Amino acid sequence: MASDPGHLAAPVPDAMLELQSVSRFFGGLAAVRNLDMAIGRGSIHGLIGPNGAGKTTVFNLITGATPLSSGSIRMEGREIGHLAPHAINRLGVARTFQNIRLFKGISVFENVRTAGSWRSGYGWIHGLVQGYTFHLREAELHQRTSELLDEFGLAHRAKEPAGALPYGEQRRLEILRALATRPKLLLLDEPAAGLNASETDALMQLVERILEQYELTILVIEHDMRMVMELCDTITVLDLGERICEGDPAAVRNDPLVIQAYLGRGDTVDASDQ
Amino acid sequence: MAYRPDPVRVYGHWLLAAAGLSLAAAAIGYGIPKVLPTFHLDPLALGLIYAVIALGLNIVNGQAGLFSIGHAAFAGIGAYTAGGLSTMVGPRLFGWGPGMPAQLDSPAAAVFFMASLLAGGLVAALFGYLVGIPTLRLRGDYLAIATLGFGEIMRVVLDNTASLGGPLGMHGIPRFTTYPVIGVALVLTLIVCRNIATSVPGRCFVALREDEIAAESLGIATTRVKVNAMALSAGIAGIGGGLLAHRLGSYMPVDLSWVRSVEFVLMVVLGGSGSITGTVIAAITLGMLPGEMLQLTKWPWLQKLIGNKMVVYSVLLIVMMLVRSLWFKGGWELSFQWMRDSAARLRRRLSRREGPANG
Question: What is the pLDDT along chain B (359 residues), one digit of tens a residue?
Fold first, then answer.
């Protein structure tokens, strides 16, 4: 991994994603205000903060689901702030959703295969004629899909409708589906929400594995502090739409502003007890 | 390296499928009229043509999950375009007219008929595209109302266009839609629908239906996919409308009304929303019903008992809706894969039955 937690509070030299004074207003409410953030290539970057801090809005801004009010977002140096979500995905950003958004009515296999479809390498004409090129590209797509399912232990579920999977596997499938678009940057929105301790451990292993295997950069929103502290190289803390702290887990854990944002003003409390 | 399909196998299957489908078209076109009693032929022809239109609608309503109640209008646009070409341009080209009935007696006339059907489809697709751009931002009920409004606008416009016959509509359209024509058109429509459904464009439609936001986040350009779906769907309905006009011999603005659109929606819903097989079966059944119920006049006592055939139609609809889940379970298709799977299942069951006897 390219990251070195020690110096990341300083400017990131090789940034995968850079946010510069990004703001988003809903009416008079600033959901995100003047946010600067840089995510180093190959790192796991955590985004935490109390409820309503604007974390998911940041995700929606990065993926283009919500338009920017002002500021700029650059992916590998390229401005993506004005692009539609599908165009941003094609530049290498994939995401999961806080409230799982699988294609529930179709099979697990179809979920993953559909996600890889814009990389299939054929269009309407080949689809209509179904000659050799179609079969070749379909075979490749089929193979990529099966490999992904095999590798992450969902092959035995391939034919089942995605909505029928247990909750933990739905979370896993959503990550696989995002991986099927072969992203460079993966955004995980509360991947451990609703998982028990052992499922969370499995999830952490999965995240570390895909990080290395697919040469990913990961930005994760998470409330599970054990996971965030163990997994992340750098953590950005948001409160009321503004960045209140950024640094490695140890620094964030002891930052008085962070403690105050989570627990309110009062006597000194050790945030690691959470 | 990755698995590469064998070209000989691929094109072998391709040719085999082409041969099989040609046979199917021939069976519909030449077999059915020979085998079936004459009084069933007209209702069945309507059912088969409705299947074409319903297959078009199935793309938006069933696969892409965009609820349109305007497809009678798209079919009507195709019918008026193709019918107009046959009644206004055809006579000048081929000397059709009083004393010289229109017929498909030369290759040029046949090509002209095919071209007019295609033109009907293209004009309908263009309307689908134009309607799609502003309305497809809407979802669910709102899109339904917008397409409903479009259909009614088209009906009223035709009602008031004297040059197209006004409320009396278009008459004297040559009856070119014979069984062979229907056979070829239905088989071609099936191929298009099946091939779209089993390739990337069709998967994008389904992704749209399942979750638009997720689809967009996975690199699917949802707006463009929607407009494409609408144009394709309207185009197929337009071709179906052209066929219908050349079967009935006349086409009226009433045929564009929302009541007709709802009939097409019924066929798609009854067929299991998204299933090609189901849509075809439902469209043929529902399309035949009114014509077949005319046969009731042969049994006056039954007719007296029922009173009005629309009552029977409605009751049948309710019954079919109630039991439809029995046969059209979630996206079932009569596919080669299904046949292979069920053959394997049957073999397993048979071998299990034999197993204990042997052992």
Answer: 457 888 888 899 899 999 999 999 999 999 999 998 888 889 999 999 999 999 999 999 989 989 899 999 999 999 999 999 999 998 888 888 777 777 777 888 899 999 999 999 999 999 999 998 888 777 778 888 999 999 999 999 999 999 998 899 999 899 999 999 999 999 999 999 999 999 999 999 999 999 999 999 999 999 999 999 999 999 999 999 999 999 999 999 999 999 899 999 988 988 877 889 889 998 998 888 877 777 766 777 766 666 666 777 778 778 877 876 665 555 677 777 778 888 888 888 888 776 555 44
Residues of chain A contacting residue B200, judged by C-beta atoms under 8 Å apart: 117-118, 120, 122-123, 127
B246 vs A206: CA distance, rounded Å:
62
Structure tokens at A70: 């002002």
Cα–Cα distance for residue pair A273/A269, rounded to 1 Å? 8
Report DSSP letters for A189-254, one per residue: ESTTTT--HHHHHHHHHHHHHHHHHTT-EEEEE-S-HHHHHHH-SEEEEEETTEEEEEE-HHHHHT
Q: Domain coordinates of chain B in residue numbers? A: 13-351
How many whole angstroms separate alpha carbon B222 and alpha carbon A138? Answer: 22
A139 and chain B in contact, CB less than 8 A? yes
pTM for the full predicted model: 0.88
In a mutational test of the B interface, the residue from A104, A106, A114, A171 whose CB has the highest number of chain B CBs within 10 Å is A114
Calculate helix-pair angle for B7-26, B179-197, nearest 10 degrees.
150
Beta strands A15-26; A70-75: pairing state: antiparallel
- Give, as one character, the DSSP assignment of residue B329: -
